[in-house]
Specification:
The complex is a heterodimer of chains A (about 260) and B (about 350). Chain A is an alpha/beta fold and about 260 residues long. Chain A has nine helices and twelve strands. Helix content of chain A is about 35%, strand content about 25%. In chain A, a hairpin with a 2-residue loop joins strand 9 and strand 10 (about 215-220). The longest helix of chain A is centred in the last third of the chain and has 18 residues, at about 170-190. Chain B has 13 helices and no strands. Chain B is globular. The two termini of chain B are about 35 Å apart. Chain B has a single domain (about 25-340), classed as Orthogonal Bundle (ABC transporter involved in vitamin B12 uptake, BtuC), CATH 1.10.3470. Chain B has helices at about 10-35, 45-55, 60-95, 105-120, 125-150, 155-180, 185-195, 200-230, 235-240, 245-265, 270-285, 285-310, 320-340. Helix content of chain B is about 75%, strand content about 0%. The chains are: A alpha/beta (about 260), B mainly alpha (about 350). Chains A and B meet through helix 2, strand 6, helix 3 and helix 4 of A and helix 8 and helix 9 of B.
Chain lengths: ~260, ~350
């Protein structure tokens, strides 16, 4: 188990969002957390990435309590990309990606050949090498998201947590980003945990789905087992039909609603 | 992955950054020469050199060594300090309109000075400056402590700005009340408020030097962390940066730098507001370059404004703070209109 939440209680101030939740992330898998708005999926991801300190319980990274490991050491093992990150105006792609090397640098040794190689590799892997000197704000949404993922890659961690990496992207760009995630998983056997809103894409790109509601895990496992018509009712309160995706064979959710 | 797919970072960038640094150093040097030679009594460069290297007690030697040199050194120190403090402040608050005065240092120094006059009978410049320095530091610590209330894991830019505004307003009210009652306090206050580096001896320079050096050192240490923070707190934390520590180091540096220069030279916080906007087009968003550029531009600007103030209204002088505001304000308007204000 690479990453584990044990009986965690999460919230902000007096507001508890998640209480008594257990979840384990196995090495080399792509896990996607789904659930309705406000169910606590982003909160859980933040806690897994030690961006949020649990009010109770603990998060274990490779079996050790994550809050007992120096944050800089964690940053060499685990990368987190929060939802809709913002960069200062004028920052170039290369500069953004270079900042991913932060945990490997000390204030007296700022730039090494390792850094150089990691940045070049991250740019190449995300297909951004040609755009390296362009300012981030001149890129399309999909390119920008790839640049951020590239920064997380340059960090050189084999564990990546992505919070809604496809928000604000059109379908083509969503697929572009998720194809990159799949590539990272298959080619470099990275362990990836992400939060996604689109259930059909989640089912297609994940090894394991975790469905949450009201701060609880309702179901977890293979997308075929998790994404059922009963679960859609229980978790999303939505009547839907599940058919097989004609392209990938994974479950495809067709909402019923009122129709003509 | 083939090696050809890897784009090395262009070395030209590094080269250009060093050249800019040299040019800015040159500008400061020119400012130093002008500041030593030009004034109510113009001293030819050869005589100035004579005064610096082999003084023999001539009138020029005395003018240079006891007046011009301390004034110039103080100008360089205060310019460096305010430029760096301004860039730090704008970086930490991610607000392009933030200036070091936001932490309450200006009003803290002002209040402590006038209070020391009426309560403790302080009467020398050196004493005023000590009290000003203490007031600036205490006000800033107070703002920092107030900014912590309610925030988790260190103060946030918003709580800091709110606390700073509240504390400044409160101290300003007290200062106003005192200077209305006490004539001597009023005199000290109005000259201090205009902002000047004149008529301060080398003892003042030695007084503020350790604070400014410590502040500059902390600022350099803070630069990489500030780069991480500029991507947002979550990203910075995920990159292994300790947010609370980074903020504390940054605020401490701003306090030392701006507290020392404000106490010695009066309110010149405008330098801290405007200089980072001049430095940013040259340095980009990297604070490891933005901070030194801002410091050097601040020093050059302060010296230049001081020299202008010496020659525009003979036989009198215009305070450097007045010149900076008169020249700087329209310039700042042009700057803001020409390029869109940069989002930080």
């Amino acid at each position: 188990m690479r990453l584990q939440a044990v009986d965690v209680k999460l919230g902000y101030g007096d507001r508890t969002i998640v209480d008594g939740l257990d979840l384990g992330i196995e090495a080399g898998t792509v896990t996607t957390i789904i659930g309705p708005n406000g169910c606590g999926k982003s909160t859980l991801l933040r806690a897994l990435g030690r961006l949020l300190r649990p009010q109770g319980g603990e998060v274990l990274l490779d079996g050790k309590r994550i809050d007992r490991i120096p944050t800089r050491e964690v940053a060499k093992i685990l990368g987190v990309l929060p939802q809709a990150p913002t960069a200062p105006e004028g920052l170039t792609v290369a500069d953004l990606v270079a900042r991913g090397r932060h945990p490997h640098q000390t204030w007296y040794r700022q730039w090494s050949s390792d850094d150089e190689a990691a940045v070049g590799e991250a740019l190449a892997m995300t297909g951004l090498a040609d755009l390296a000197e362009r300012p981030l704000d001149e890129l399309s949404g999909g390119q920008r998201q790839r640049a951020w993922i590239s920064m997380a890659l340059a960090q050189g961690t084999d564990l990546l947590l992505l919070d809604e990496p496809t928000t604000f992207l059109d379908l083509a760009h969503q697929v572009e980003v998720l194809e990159l995630v799949r590539h990272l998983h298959r080619e470099a056997s990275r362990t990836i945990v992400m939060v996604l809103h689109d259930l059909n894409l989640a089912a297609r790109y994940a090894d394991r789905l975790v469905a949450m509601r009201d701060g609880r895990v309702v179901a977890a496992g293979d997308p075929h087992e998790v994404l059922t018509e009963e679960l859609m009712r229980e978790v999303f309160e939505l009547d839907a039909k599940i058919i097989a995706d004609p392209v990938a064979g994974t479950p495809l959710v067709i909402p019923i609603g009122t129709h003509r | 992955m083939t090696a050809t797919a890897v784009t090395p970072r262009p070395h030209g960038v590094q080269h250009r950054r060093l050249s800019v640094l040299l040019v800015l150093l040159g500008a400061v040097l020119i400012g130093v020469v002008l500041s030593i030679t030009i004034g109510a009594k113009s001293v030819p460069p050869a005589d100035a050199w004579h005064a610096l290297t082999t003084p023999s007690g001539t009138e020029n030697d005395i003018v240079i060594r006891s007046l011009r040199v301390p004034r110039t050194v103080l100008g360089v120190l205060a310019g460096l300090a305010l430029g760096v403090a301004g860039a730090l402040m704008q970086g930490h608050t991610r607000n392009p309109l933030a200036d070091p005065g936001l932490l309450g240092v200006t009003q803290g120094a002002a209040f402590a000075m006038v209070a020391s006059i009426i309560l403790l009978g302080a009467s020398s410049l050196l004493a005023y400056i000590w009290f000003g320095l203490a007031g600036a530091l205490i006000a800033s610590v107070g703002v920092f402590a107030l900014g912590m209330v309610g925030g988790r894991g260190g103060p946030t830019p918003v709580t800091l700005a709110l606390a700073g505004t509240a504390v400044s307003a409160f101290l300003y009210a007290l200062t106003s009340a005192i200077v209305l009652l006490d004539e001597q306090a009023m005199d000290v206050f109005r000259f201090w408020q205009a902002g000047s580096i004149a008529a301060r001896g080398s003892d003042v320079v030695w007084q503020v030097l350790p604070f400014i050096l410590a502040g500059l050192l902390l600022a350099m240490v803070n630069a990489p962390g500030l780069n991480a923070l500029s991507l947002g707190e979550d990203v910075a934390r995920s990159l292994g940066q300790n947010i609370a520590l980074t903020r504390t180091v940054g605020v401490t540096a701003v306090t030392l730098l701006s507290g020392a220069s404000v106490a010695a030279c009066g309110s010149l916080a405008f330098v801290g507001l405007i200089v980072p906007h001049l430095a940013r087009p040259l340095s980009g968003t990297d604070h490891r370059w933005l901070l030194p550029y801002s410091g050097l531009i601040g020093a050059a600007l302060l010296l230049l404004a001081d020299v202008i103030g010496r020659v525009v209204a003979p036989p009198g002088e215009l305070e450097v703070g007045v010149v900076l505001a008169l020249l700087g304000a329209p310039f700042f308007v042009v700057l803001v209109r020409r390029r869109k204000p940069v989002r930080l």
